[in-house]
Amino acid sequence: MHEKPPYGMIAILFIGAFVALLNNTLLNVALPTIMTEFDVSPSIVQWITTGYMLVNGILIPASAFFIQKFTNRRLFLTAMTLFSIGTLLAMLAPSFGILVLARMIQASGSAVMMPLLMNVMLTAFPVEKRGSAMGIFGLAMITAPAIGPTLSGWVIEHYDWRVLFGIVLPFALFTLVFAFIKLSNITENREVRLNIPSLILSSIGFGGILYGFSMAGEKGWDALEVYGTIIVGAIALFGFIWRQLHMDEPMLEFRIYKHPMFALSSAISIVLSMSMFSAMILTPLYVQTIRGISPFHSGLLMLPGAIVMGIMSPIMGRLFDRFGARILAIIGLSITVLTTYLFSNLDLDSGYYFIMLLYTIRMFGISMVMMPVMTNGLNQLPMRDNPHGTAMNSTIQQVSGAIGSALLLTVMNKRSESAGNDLLDQAMASGNVPQSTDGMAAFKVQLANEAMLEGINFTFFVSTWIAVVALLLGFFIKRVTPPKTEYEQVDTPAS
């Protein structure tokens, strides 16, 4: 443990992780423009985000191996170089295939950024100051993806989509040069071997599950491409877990779940991620589709929530150091439950600023939960297991986010379809179906909006109960401190 945390080094890693995470959501608003330019279908253009996500899903579980095997300097410089090359290639991409390849190269660099930053912070800070440190970490993890859609919406309205990569590239290159000059090594390395069968099983397992659930909203659950990849992924994941539990040096250590607070923090993170994604997906859908508000103003609506989370994350870290995770989680999850329920009562003309306020308060509640609960779980792990803990947290957030998004979108689509049929039957029974062409067109738009609103409200109601599960789990949180001897073993910094 370092007597004085290396703040300069952490700042370098933080900027790298922030840029990589910002890149995750930066292209979402630009997909229709890219689809038109390269003349590809919606199912094809989704590979810009799906390919990025798949590479992340494959490499993040392996990040524990990379962090133990290589110095933090070498690992970060390699990751940032790959990310910069991918960004430049994407900006200049002459074809859609090259753009997808560029995104996958970006992802190969960004996948290791967050686990590496988190592991360095756990190594550099004593347990009594970890809350404050992880609060700063939360700035990158939460704020960057939330800023992405707003920035993207503004750029797309005024400039070409390639400017998005032009914005990211200077920051990536600056971070790379600064890291080359200033970055040193503080994490210990061990002589570990990469088990190829484990890597293959992990890639098929996590990759298959992520791909299957991410495509479910578009293809439908009855598509072989969806349920086939999920089944293959689940079988491979079972094989991967079984193999890790029977290895002396596993690629990803699942035995860390014997620590009850880490297991509980993972369970809360999974449930909360699924609930959190409901607002991040459904709010823009409601604002843009039902209210007809532009993508930029839709992103702007979500910006105050991102800013609040950014401001509160370090504050919540300090409060965690003082009071522990339990009280923060209970208050934060109570706010999340209440605001999610209020979201389930939207109507066709709910006020723009009312939605903005509700979304901001909801994000404030979530800011009280995410990092404190995660840090409390990591605090129970022995220092040698930190790389596995950080890799596991990043992996389950990716997987639960994809699963939550797919399930909630399915719930919304099914409810909207059912509500549409009921509304049409009621209109026909009461003789309120217009006969003129113009009247019929307006009637269909009204019917579609009312049906979608019903679907969105019902999905928020389901999400409310998901958040209730997280709240109930929050009452079982206990403050933990690792045995002091586990720190004494690693007090000497790596040379």
TrEMBL record:
Pfam families: MFS_1. Keywords: Cell membrane, Membrane, Transmembrane, Transmembrane helix, Transport. It is found in: Cell membrane. GO terms for molecular function: transmembrane transporter activity. GO terms for cellular component: plasma membrane. The keyword Cell membrane applies. Residues 9-482 form the Major facilitator superfamily (MFS) profile domain. InterPro entries: EmrB-like, MFS, MFS_dom, MFS_trans_sf. The chain crosses the membrane at residues 7-27, 47-67, 79-101, 107-127, 134-155, 161-181, 193-214, 226-242, 262-287, 293-311, 323-344, 350-374, 456-477. The keyword Cell membrane applies. Gene3D superfamilies: MFS general substrate transporter like domains, Multidrug resistance protein D. Belongs to the major facilitator superfamily. EmrB family. PANTHER family: MAJOR FACILITATOR SUPERFAMILY MULTIDRUG TRANSPORTER MFSC (PTHR42718:SF9). This is Spectinomycin tetracycline efflux pump. It comes from Oceanobacillus picturae.
